[in-house]
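Hello,

Our lab assistant flagged a job as stuck in the queue for most of the afternoon. It eventually completed. Since we weren't sure the result was trustworthy after the delay, we are filing this so someone can double-check. Below is the sequence as submitted and the structure that was eventually returned. Let us know if re-running is recommended.
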Amino acid sequence: MKIEEEGISLKGTVLDPLIEKQEIKQREIILNQMISKRKACNEINNSKYSIFTFFPLVLFYQFQHFFNLYFLGLTITQFIPALKVGFIINYVGPLSIVLCLSMCKEAYDDILRHSRDRQINKQLYQILTIEGLMNKKSGNLQVGQIVQVNKDERIPADLLILKTDDKDGNAFIRTDQLDGETDWKLRKSLKLTQNMDENQLTQASGVIQFEQPHQNINVFKGLLQINEIDGNQLRESTSIENIIWANSVLAVGQIYGIVIYNGQESKMMMNQKKSQTKKGIFDIEVDRLSKLSFFIMIILAAIITLFSSPPRDFTYVIQMYMRYLILVSNIIPISMRVNLEFAKIVYSIRINRDPNIDGTISRNSNIPESLGRISYLLSDKTGTLTQNDMVFKRFSLENEKYTLEQDDLQKVKQILYDQFKNPSKKNGKMREFFTCLSVCHSVTPVDDEYGNRTYQAQSPDEIALIKFAAQQGFYISQRNDKEIIIHIDQNELKIKERYQILNCFPFSSENKRMGIVLKNNQNQIHFYVKGADVVLKQLLPEQYQNYIDEETENLARVGLRTLVLAHRILTQKEYDEWNKQYIKATQLIDNRESKIQNMIEQLERQLEFLGITGVEDKLQDDVSHTIENLKNAGINVWMLTGDKMETAICVAILSGLKHQSQNFIKMKDVIDEIQMSLVLQNLEANSNNVLIIDGISLQEALNGFEEKFMKAAMNCPSVICCRCSPTQKAIITELLKKYSGLVVAAVGDGGNDVGMIQSSDVGIGIEGKEGKQAALASDFSILRFSSLNLLLLWHGRLSYKRSSLLSQFIIHRGLLIATVQTIFMFLFYFLSISLFSGFLMFGYSTIFTMFPVFCIIYDEDVKQDLALRFPPLYKSIQQGRLLNTKTFLIWLWKAVFQGFIIMICSILLIKQAFLRLETTVFTCLIFTQYAMTLTELESLHIFMILANLLSVLIYLMTLLLFPQQLLVQDTIDVPFFGWVFLILLMSWLPLYVLRRIQKLVDPSDHEKLMDQVQRETINTN
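-- returned structure --
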């Protein structure tokens, strides 16, 4: 087969009457001609690096971080003799560790990617050639080759289906790895090639014309032209129903498909974007404090330079300034990033392994602390707050309403029996209503391996409808792309209705309706349609519109999802004339969708109203309790749904989004500025009420009143956006982040929630019946809404609290040793040398203090049950009170105080102070870190105590085993440790006492709350 890649013109060809008179840039495949060897292969390459690019690219990415670049600069200065102030290992060692850890992580991840790619590329498939079937690796498949795919095999490239082993040309696929949807999808082969055998497929003459590759997985347009021996040309339009995208899986049977896109042009690869890296608010705050430390370091080096000696030549001053800057560079600890990365990994592992929220997965280990800082939670409704398990509850005809009460069902049975027994009666709406339920859908009955009947559908609503129809005696026996067979059982009446499918118009989120044209046993042509009330009422006679509005609102008030059903009878002549124009529209390549839609709208004229259905979607377990906890924790919960306002109101009341003491402020169909201004004024004056707004009003509010609307909405205890499109969900998320400046989380379960999830600071996906698309796009995935209780109030709160304390300990560690170095330079005539040897400096931030600091990530101030019983504990730290400029200055003061006491007391109290100075001061620094760790923690457990004892043992063994290298052979004795203990008490005890006094005299709000929790716990016990 020959593949033409350039743009072509269809003008002047046999297709000219069927297309618009313009140049159309497209592609074509000429069947059964030689394939160009220059055509790109189908190899999948998801790796980031090759063996040649690994080191340069990893180093490039690492040194894009300011502080890595900063420490690289410090390291380079130590190779300049005039700036060398100590051992090079002090600077090369820590930086090398950071880079090596990063390289190992990148190498490990990329090796896994290479391995997965090789496994996929080496998978064998059979291609159909004139010599028969031949094996070929997936990575070598080319455009134009015909591939055989069997049951449960992965689709290796984007295929146009030529033939299936199903006599009707049907093929069922699973696309959960492509779009996250778990339900089977129906695809169809091309009619012109379905009945060809293998030899005919390899000998066929013709051309396939199709569009250039693009990212939209829901659209495909093309045209197949087959040349017959007598010179005639057969044409068939191709659409999305004839295509299987790469990485789908064939659920049943066998197919032959021709490769149309491969490799980087396949839909899977074109949609495989690099996920946007989210930087958590905690990391932003740590960066801010690190920059503050950097500023302090610059000022401190300048002050030392100013006091060191009278001004000399400029070069000397710069040289001395750089030396002092390097000596106090420990203010910014290089170990900060490594320690925090390790902590984040631990938090993620603990979330993944928590048995109380089974199925929860941390997909982004960079932002666990953000879970403890959420101020706004935006939630979808269906499948998120509700179960997405639809149960048929009631329906209404023109003047009759029916529920599932036994009396109503008996009445329905009797009416149906009468209408089937006397079909000549004029009024047969009940019969037509249930016929519409039975035939107007995309459900496919499938028998499993045990012979049990199951239904495959993309919407659980449709399954609920056909199950209810079956309960009333309308059973779907068979459905394919040609006909639907319904068995009707009404008492002694057993009827088999066979409907020929003439046309089918699937549901889409844009049209909000679906329709089907059928011919029944009596050769009558019926057009059935069902859809959203806002759409269908515009297509029905005006006399029904008020009734539809009233009845759908009544159903929505009790939390039911509604659909409106209608139908039309066509004469054969009417249908033939319409269908002729419709076929022409389907064979267009350009503007095909708009032309088809115009033809469908012609068919939708003169519809007759049949009825309204009400389907219930129950709330998930513990939703109201979870929302109550989140609200008590200071989290403002908004609901963004595409459902009706009345249904949204009902769910808001049942779920607890609206308190009994609150009222709703409705913004419905607000389309002009004056009306919007009045509503916003009312909202500002009544900000304690719940705002509910529909999609039309929301669009108007965002067009001209964006800031005013968002600020007014943020003052409400809760906001509900109904009839909300996926795009509007994402826009609201972005605007809430912009105007609040706080952490915004989003939770949803469907593909329409992906934009909202990705736009939020913390995206939470629920693996539900709509598939895994939302979960795969999220930062954290859960199985149920109630899992947010533990995820936020326990794991989120602890992650933020632990990382805050950990980062401040590390900052304190750097400030403390920098303070000691500064005092040393001031006391000893501004010597620009390091007080400590290279080995001690290296060990100070690693092996000597590593274990106690790591114990912080296991610290707990309350038990899990108390954290859930007292949600205000979350609120007390929600605004970042544990890590900010104030806490930084407090720890700075602690470091300066302790550094001053340690340095001065070491000189004054210890004999031969100068000779013992390094060992004395360093030992005091180490033991001060141990003491601070134990006293700052909220709880002590055996591992923390053992970690401190292990660190003490390691340090003492180092002094004893390497006395000459550390210059301590004559300094270690019993009085020495006595003085060290005294200095430790002098530097640590005053801070401990002050902390206890401050807690008693002027406790913070958090400490007051903790005392209350402890008292209530004691009283309860």
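-- support follow-up --
The delay was a queue issue, not a problem with the job. The result is valid. Residues 1-24 have pLDDT under 50 and may be disordered. The chain has 34 helices and 34 strands.
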